[in-house]
Amino acid sequence: MRFRPDLFLRCARGRCPDCGAPEQLTGLATIRDRCTACGMVLRRREGFFLGAMVWNYGLTAFGLLPVLLVLRAYDWIGFAAAVWLAVAVILLVPWLIHGVAWRLWLGTYYAFLPEQLPSSGRRLDD
Known about the structure:
Blueprint: H1 5-12, H2 50-73, H3 79-96, H4 98-112
Helix pairs in contact: 1-4, 2-3, 2-4
């Protein structure tokens, strides 16, 4: 198994992993079901969304919440403000970065498994 950084970067920029068509993201929080150019299914069968959940959780829990801990550790914000900000981050950020998490998940999946792309012989409706 060989990692394909070109596929990861293509997806991270919101392009189709197979044909590279732009704008597969319909908004900050959503992604299309299929590529408008080649018809590739971007939201696959049940369970495929779990990878996007991992990216979403990782970006929130290990990207943003530690910033609040550092701010609190240096007394730049008070305890109550840190708690309120943490609650806001936990409730709002996962919804806001859902589309980004999907893009990163698609990039991770196809960068490690490029043979799963329709251009490599996989069916479009899988």
